[in-house]
Write a structure and sequence with these properties.
Helix 3 links the parallel strand 1 and strand 2. The chain has four helices and two strands; from the N terminus they run H-H-E-H-E-H. It is mainly α.
């Protein structure tokens, strides 16, 4: 979430316009988290925390993308794996 990425202090949480970590707890459908392990804009640990905050019955296996950052997951040959994983997730919704 916005301000929480910049500082671990909860004092600024009220200014956070992206309170994902709070909102994700209310989601009642399957969730697929994708996060680059080399992300320098949003800490990888933030992605892990988001995954753990998803209700257990809505949690699916995340994709922790090695050697990718914030906006480059689909660059180069990574686009193929991205499409495959996204298709697998979408198909699982029919189950």
């Amino acid at each position: 979430s916005g301000m929480r990425v910049l500082t671990p202090s909860r004092a600024l949480a009220c200014l956070d316009i992206f309170p994902n970590i709070d909102r994700i707890k209310k989601v009642q459908c399957p969730v697929f988290i994708i996060h680059g392990k080399q992300d320098e804009e949003v800490s990888f640990q933030h992605g892990v925390a988001l995954q753990m905050a998803v209700r257990e019955d809505c949690r699916t296996d995340p994709w922790w993308v090695p050697d990718k950052g914030h906006n480059d997951i689909v660059d180069g040959p990574g686009i193929v794996e991205y499409i495959q994983r996204l298709n697998r997730f979408v198909r699982s919704l029919d189950d």
